[in-house]
């Protein structure tokens, strides 16, 4: 699971956005070459290696590349606003 934080500041208001990316079930069609549809049943991506290596992009459970797994993105935005003094 990756987490990224972006901070935007403009004038008297600031906004913080957190982005969490998770990879769900494998959607690779193993029967595509014969015109069918069959998936392997892998329910969640588990990296085969450490972050930053090429093995981190391969699933330990099914052996497929991470791109075959359904991507789930959760975003949380927190805004703070300070009204200007009149």
From TrEMBL:
Transmembrane segments: none annotated. InterPro entries: ZF_HD_homeobox_Cys/His_dimer (IPR006456). Keywords: Metal-binding, Zinc, Zinc-finger. It comes from the Eukaryota. Residues 23-72 form the ZF-HD dimerization-type domain. Signal peptide: none annotated. PANTHER family: MINI ZINC FINGER PROTEIN 3, ZINC-FINGER HOMEODOMAIN PROTEIN 2. This is ZF-HD dimerization-type domain-containing protein. It comes from Hibiscus sabdariffa. The lineage of its organism: Eukaryota, Viridiplantae, Streptophyta, Embryophyta, Tracheophyta.
């Amino acid at each position: 699971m990756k987490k990224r934080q972006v901070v935007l500041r403009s004038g008297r208001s600031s906004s913080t956005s957190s982005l969490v990316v998770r990879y769900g079930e494998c959607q690779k069609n193993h029967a595509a070459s014969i015109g069918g549809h069959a998936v392997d049943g892998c329910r969640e991506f588990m990296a085969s290696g450490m972050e930053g290596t090429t093995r981190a992009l391969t699933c330990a459970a099914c052996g497929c590349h991470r791109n075959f797994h359904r991507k789930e993105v959760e975003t949380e935005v927190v805004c703070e606003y300070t009204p200007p003094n009149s």
